[in-house]
Amino acid sequence: MIRLAVFGSPIRQSSSPAIHGMFAEQCGLDVDYQAIEATAESFAGLLQALAAQGGRGCNVTVPLKKQAWQLAQRASLSAQRAQAANTLVFESDNDWYADNTDGRGLVQDLSGNLGQPIRASRICIIGAGGAAAGILGDLLAQEPKCITIANRTLERARELQQTFSTSLDAPAAETSEPGPTPVPVVSAISLDDLGIATPFDLVINATSLGHETRHPGLPETIFLPGSLCYDLNYGAAAEPLRAFCGEMGISYEDGLGMLVEQAALSFELWTGRSPETAPVLRVLRQL
Predict the structure, then answer these.
(1) So what's the architecture of 2-100 in CATH?
(2) 146 or 176, higher pLDDT
(3) Most buried pick, 1, 142, 224, 255, via CB within 10 A?
């Protein structure tokens, strides 16, 4: 049996056990995947216990992603840049590998599932917290024209801008065109200045306001005709922004596809098997 878990707080409503249960059934694997409530104080001990019991690894959600990265002995480039991990692989009781599959999951949902162009596009990320940090590096690797980070606190947006502007070391996409690959411009603005910003092809909500039944109150002028508003939230937390976009006639997608895609990447890290995501996403959409 492959022992896995997801840690976070709150964790009771997590969809991860159901998602990984469907992945396991597809692949013919015997998987025990538990949702475990953890605090900053209890997290390290719970991780150690799972590893000592033969656990293969775990997922990590809020508010423990940074701590997971700190506790690991090795980390992927994605986890290092985000300074956070949503996946740990237990290579032994005391040798843990950290990865962050959020950004790759987002890219796969946008490009593979939704057919949304990223390369050469203008992107705005609303919010500058851990969710934004977790996706920035992988978005930059797709070579957008520019990424603007808009945040209520401008200083935090500038910190994130500086971090990723000085670490644009993701492999460039192959191109047959001569000359160097253009480096995407990362900029930071206050959320209050969005109304005077140049419109975007893709606007990504990386705030948690939906959990408070609110949305960022985006000005309609930031959306180009045919642009997409993508919400990292899903379920009830996605409803405020979904309703707003519906009233404004703006194309909208929630983050359920990203959730499934990032989970598939974690599953592959633990098992070496790559599950099909489309049937799992169809089931979740019907719930």
Answers:
(1) 3-Layer(aba) Sandwich (3.40)
(2) 146
(3) 255
